Amino acid sequence: MIDFCLQQPSRTLPDALATWHEKIKRTPPVIDVGFRLAVTDLTRRGRLEDLATVPRRGVTSYRLFMAYEGSIMVDDETTSRPIQLTHVAGAPRYVVHVTCKDAIDPIARARAASRKAPGETCTQYLLVDEGCGEATSPRSPMAGQASRSG
Length: 150
What we know:
Layout lengths: L1 E5 L6 H14 L7 E6 L8 H6 L8 E3 L15 H10 L11 H12 L10 H5 L17 H5 L1
Parallel strand pairs: 1-2, 2-3
């Protein structure tokens, strides 16, 4: 099992890792467990220097939240900068929950430059639009209801 080791507000990345290791000690699992570090703050308490140490602690992947403004988003940058940084570092990255053209364009540019830039969206992003709540929208669960009720 791979569990998200979530950095809590006002806590450092090593604190987050220590918290999850303590949970494992309190309740030993019966299967193999690994962690993916969920970085939520790289400005106040999370430092890039700390992030660089996690592979030595057995954590080889992490997740930066860039899409949840006001809650656990690291910052409001699009996918462009992380793609550039991981390319320079020679590190793999996988962009998930791509929601708009501004996020797709950097992936397309990286692919056009023959760089690996995998990304994915969610099904609902392909099917839901502003008109989905209107009875006249063919995608609405209420489609056709207005004409039948009259």
